[in-house]
Amino acid sequence: MNKVINESEDHFFSSKKSISDIKGTFFVGITQLAVILIIAILFVILGIIIYQGRSKFSWEFISSFPTNGMTEGGIFPALIGTFILVIVMSIAAVPFGTITALYLTEYASENSKFAAAVRFSVRTLAVVPSIIFGLFGLGFFIQFLGAGADTAFNGGELRWGQPNILWASLTMSLLTLPVIIVSVEEALKTIPRELREASLALGATKWQTIKNVVLPGSVSGIMTGTILAVSRGAGEVAPILFTGAAYYLATLPGSLSDQFMNLGYHIYIMSTQSSDVEKTMPIQFATTLVLLILTLSLNVVAVLIRSRIRRNAK
Amino acid sequence: MNTQMPIKQTFTEESLKKQFRLSEFLAEKIISSVAFLSIAIIFLIFIFVFKESLPLFSFGSDAKAKTEINATTEAKPETYGAEPTEELKPESYGAEPTEELKPESYGDTPKEDLKPETYGSEPVSQEDLKPEAYGDTPKEDLTVASADETMDAVSENQEGADKTWSTFFTTEWVPVSENPRFGLLALLFGTLKVTIIAMLIAGPLAVLAALYTSCFASKRVKEIIKPIIEMLAAFPSVVIGFFALMVLATFFQDVFGYESRLNAFIGGVAMALAAIPIIYTISEDALAAVPKTYTEASLALGASKWQTAFFVVLPAATPGIFAALLLGVGRVFGETMIALMATGNAALSSLNPFESVRTFAATIGSEMAETVFGDTHYSVLFFIGSLLFIFSFALNAVAEFYVKGKLLKKFQGK
To answer: A GO biological process this protein is involved in (chain A) (predicted)?
Structure first.
């Protein structure tokens, strides 16, 4: 009797297992396929852009002005414009972001409602569509601050109340703020509690501890945040559409109240509003390649620094 | 006891009191007020985006006088050097009510709008004779003519307010014409269509990939896959849009053989690429946060690895995955550059996924540069902006509070 039951049970289990095995391979296969598909798409995009852009991609392309109604020549002013944009943006966003992160990790208590509100607004900033930042830049920086400053100081003469590189950079700094805050916060959290306690026990005040112990320890975190923010800021176009990016400029921007050319905006303009889209195709792909190299390499650097911070924390 | 006595005496109540140090006090105050700024920014964004759309809400004649004062003072710095000496030309608003005009325009509107290949430039051809301004508007505005135009627009704005509202719930988006119509429904329809297509592609792909990463992949494979997929987030949206415009559009047209090269489907595919890293990262975090005891209990009961993954881990992480999908929707809904470059930008409302559409964000992006400050069109675009802001704010709030609360409860076994 016993034996029979065992046999039938065995049989039962084994048959079920084989069905389950087939199902199992199927389901695991699907998930595997999803991963492979995503990675394949990524490399296809990269591959096509590199393949199409490589013929035009050269030092001369990077270092010369566009000529002949933007159908020939290089992207030098767009590249410089992008650099100025991210530099001014970092100058505004990095201190602001670092201090907010300091507040969240060092000063805010666990159950503080205020800190929760700050966290919530930072996360909201991260999900607000980038075009809204553009509208805000136009409504607040240009129409309100800029035009206000013009009436107050310039006697109504138009200087700041129009799109320019300063307003574009400030708009962009709001967009990249969450990136910096999150990175710095993460880095601050990896600094061991013992270090802070040792400093406090030696009689240092809270601010002295932050200044001499916490901040030096989080330099690499601030760097990661800055690099990620720069990578993001270099690629975003929507916020600068109406806050300062220009279609074509014959000269480089000389002051903060000038407009500027931008790599991403250049791609957008060239591919949608160029007089001869077919002819400028290699230029467009090469410009995209330059932008992609810029953002991807910055990202890789940030990821490497971050993984080093994590390893040190362990 | 004896040895402790002298020490005890040195700590008087006075000395134990926290000393007031100015630098400490200042540092704390400055740091928390800077932190407060990020809350302030959120409010400022809403206030200033919404403020520009306020003229739309001034109904009737009571508000008229007030608007006039506001409008003229606000318009002043916008005249760019040219003094607004010109008299206010009373505009002919088209005496006919909008309802009468509508049946007439059914015939010709599609013709105006059916230009899927305009690549984000204005879809309306009626008043396009004026020089086009791509972002460098101020140069255009330096002319006297535009100052004149501003005044016209302002005066039109006052009486146009309630007329504008009546056109909001129609499906015609013809902002630049003798009789402008702002049918937000057409844009809403287009935005939803693209969002649905994008989420149908990105949602399953990203969640399944996250499931593989957190449940099946070995540690080494995981360390390779994760950064690569997250690398997709570093692709600027203008690059994805460009890729869709140049490569995907041609490729899919060859495969499916539909008519308009740029359409909702292409836009959806491209936006899926933008949404995948967000959905992937957040749902991977949610899956990894499922307590190990769940997995171990399931495995101990004899379930296989895939059964555990699909019937234990995945259901346990549902709230987190839901949050991931919500944030993905938020990203697609507000995506501008991809919509501008890949969707064709014609406000058609048909169910066919291979027709051109126009989304909210793309409308703002492509038309803002051509509007005049204070114009109804300008206000409507800002109004769309505040709608988008409210929507993304609400999505984030839901993802944050509702989902997190649920997740916590679940893991605490309540």
So the answer is: phosphate ion transmembrane transport
Task: Say how many domains are in chain A.
Answer: 2
C-alpha distances (whole Å) from B292 to each of B145, B214, B295, B312, B315 are 70, 12, 5, 11, 14
Rounded to the nearest angstrom, the minimum Cα separation between A253 and chain B is 14
Interface test with B, best of A18, A35, A133 (most B CBs within 10 A): A35
**pLDDT averaged over every residue in chain B:** 71
Concatenating the DSSP letter of every residue in A134-192 gives HHHIIIIIIIIIIHHHHHHHSTT--SSSS--HHHHHHHHHHHHHHHHHHHHHHHHHHS-
Q: Is residue A72 part of a domain?
A: yes
B292 pLDDT more than 80: yes
Instruction: Rank A110-114, B83-87, B148-152, B174-178 by mean pLDDT and report only the highest.
Output: A110-114
Considering only the beta carbons, identify the residue of A42, A241, A268 that sits closest to B341.
A268
The residues, any chain, with a CB within 8 Å of residue A92's CB and separated by 6 or more, are A169, A170, A173
Question: Does residue A184 lie in a domain region?
Answer: yes
Query: Can you tell me the mean pLDDT for A153-174?
Result: 83
SS3 B217: coil
Mutate to test the interface with A, among B117, B187, B194, B239 (most CBs of A within 10 A): B239
Considering the domain architecture, whether residues A13 and A127 belong to the same structural domain is answered as no
**Is A16 at the interface with chain B, CB within 8 A?**
no
More confident residue, A155 or B140: A155
Whether residue A195 lies within 8 A of chain B, CB to CB, comes out as no
Q: B66 touching A, CB under 8 A? A: no
Average pLDDT over residues B203-213: 92
Contact B236 A236 (CB under 8 A): yes
| Residues A148 and A266 reside in one and the same domain | yes
Say if B206 is an interface residue toward chain A (CB within 8 Å): yes
Rounded-to-integer distance, Cα B226 and Cα B210, Å: 9
Whether residue A15 is found in the same domain as residue A83? no
Tell me, yes or no, whether A135 and A233 share the same domain. yes
A263 plus A286 within the same structural domain = yes
Question: A80 lies in a domain?
Answer: yes
Is residue B403 within 8 angstroms of chain A, CB to CB? no
B351-381 residue pLDDT tens: 777 778 888 888 888 888 777 777 778 888 8
Residue A58 maps to a domain: no
Query: Cβ–Cβ of B38/A121 closer than 8 Å?
Result: yes
From B116, which residue of chain A is nearest by alpha-carbon distance? A272
Domain that holds residue A12: 1-53
A200 touches chain B (CB under 8 A): no
Enclosing H/E stretch for B361: helix B360-367
Residue percentage of chain A with pLDDT more than 90: 18
Sketch out chain B's domains with CATH numbers.
62-89+97-184 (no CATH), 186-411 (1.10.3720.10)
